[in-house]
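User: Can you predict the 3D structure of Oxygen oxidoreductase covalent FAD-binding site? Sequence below.
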Amino acid sequence: MDSRCELLKELRSQAPNLSVHDRTSSFFAELQLYYNRGLAQEPLAIVRPTTEEEVSEVIGFCSAKGIPLTVRSGGHDFFGRSQAGNGIVLDMRLIDHITIAPDKTTATVGGGVLAGALQQELNAHDLFTPTGHSSSVGYASWACGGGYGFYVGTYGFGVDQIVQARVVVASGRVVDTDQDSELLWGLRGAGAGTFGVVTQLCVRIYPMPRLYAGLLAFPLSEASVLLEQFERHVSEDGIPDEFSGDAFVARPEMLQLASSVSCFVFLWCWTSVGGNVTRAKVYLDKIKSLGTVVVNTVEESKSSVGPSIISRTLS
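Assistant: Sure. Here are the predicted structure tokens for Oxygen oxidoreductase covalent FAD-binding site:
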């Protein structure tokens, strides 16, 4: 029996209920899929805790044995930092509980919850909290790492939503930020795996806003003029707090052939907390006037942008 097998046997004996997958597991290849598949590394094992106690056992074991450990939820880190060659990957996706407070102002979110699952649960209660552009991104790592997205102007960043956390530190000890305000301060912006493993966040939630969101695409040949005009518009009039977006270049097949030419695309989102989207429509017309619109999917919605309007258009 080689040292790898001996280590995993010891881990299984210390945490008998823990789900441990090595290269012999039929689920290993599936569990190892990441957003950036060009950076795949083979770990010693992928472990899937279901409780905070199991997270503590794994971290304590790895610390004691000197085994490299990394944490994953959505697996979207472009540089592959949620991978561990010859180490252990702590796959948090089974710690996916979501509990809405009775007063509907906060929600308790497990460390492995994905953004789409969180918004789906909140949508069912006509509630909302900011998330990123993609439904498959891990919420806790997104929020603790800054939490940039479409709703910054209206609600602030993801870090601004965090009011409490539970973290397992390197020794295996569980720390509640209600007893450690400095840890909470650090987590809110630098906490994506820096200080320990976040097993739970308590975050602010809000009544569901009305959204005016989707894609606005112009021919790529107009990009230079379009950007010059947009820059002039911003310098003269600024950007409304309710508006946010992103931009990218798309081939026709990325837009499900809605256009026959490559396009410069705005991801568009207007967040109306008061429910009135009249100003959104006026602003949309202003942006449309900057060039030749070839695709326009902007419409009213009560669903968050990532899992809904935009993902229905992009293939």
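The mean pLDDT is 89. The CA atoms of residues 227 and 290 lie 9 Å apart.
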